[in-house]
Here is the input.
Amino acid sequence: MLYQRTLLKSTSVTGIGLHTGKKITLTIHPAKADFGIQFKRSDLPDAPVLKASAGTVGTTENNTTIGSGVNVIHTVEHLLSVFYGLGVDNAYCEVNGPEIPIMDGSGASFVFLLKESGITNLNKSKKFLVVLEPIRVELDDKWAQIEPSSRLIVDSTIVFAHPTIRNQNKSFEFSCDNFIDLISRSRTFGFLKDVDMLKRKGLIKGGSLDNAIVLDDFKVMNSDGLRFKDEFVRHKILDTVGDISLLGYEVCGKITTYKSGHLLHNMLCRKLLESQNSYEIVSASSIQREALEALELPIAMAPIFQ
Here is the structure.
């Protein structure tokens, strides 16, 4: 995946917003190279387009929200994760409400949607954010860091005082196939004891056993059980990939997290971008050239990039 990518044709899906409970239609359109991922509230025709970036993130309580005031879109992280996972750099997303549909609580429906639409290469090479120096953020006993690596690796640890979860750790080396097979189907989760508190805060109005794993004090309440024994930490990786995609580039770096969430992920992105000596932006053609030189192969063997 050295070329930028977009959809072959527009595609739509309708579902319920996890937090708003509203029925929402999302339509994704192809976009030109260097457009990035942009969102438009079609129910707010005069509102500006929102570009998916670390700097446009607003609230991060139980989801990642971009925008501010009335012009906001909640729960973008699963869709953004699938865009990154399938290598889609450019897309224009119209949504007729304040939230991305939650679907089944994972990224699987969005994977299906994009595959059905088709994905095509654009005549311009990708750009990579290459991490040069470690960056770390902390919040109480939680932390997240990113350090140099030749590829994207996410090493995540979660800790919950629940007999079904306890401590879970997973290290994930990114590739499209690995993302689809190992990460995209993992669902968001929550605890029955927290439902009333979250609803008082105006959250999870659309939550159900159809779009989340729900745990009582002892077990998983969903009749179909878990998709993976460690589905909880896999979903944390899904969220992390979506939040890190807001850097705006493919990432060459190892991300390690401990009890992290959307706020810490956004703090990490912002601190990295503010530390200009800690990274560089490199075109895929340059990376290909360096790889060939390292292998002592002639440059003529490389594809031509623009």
Observations:
- Residues 231-244 form the longest helix (14 residues).
- The longest strand covers residues 153-160.
- The helical segments are 77-85, 108-117, 176-183, 195-200, 231-244, 262-274, 284-294.
- The two ends are 14 Å apart (CA to CA).
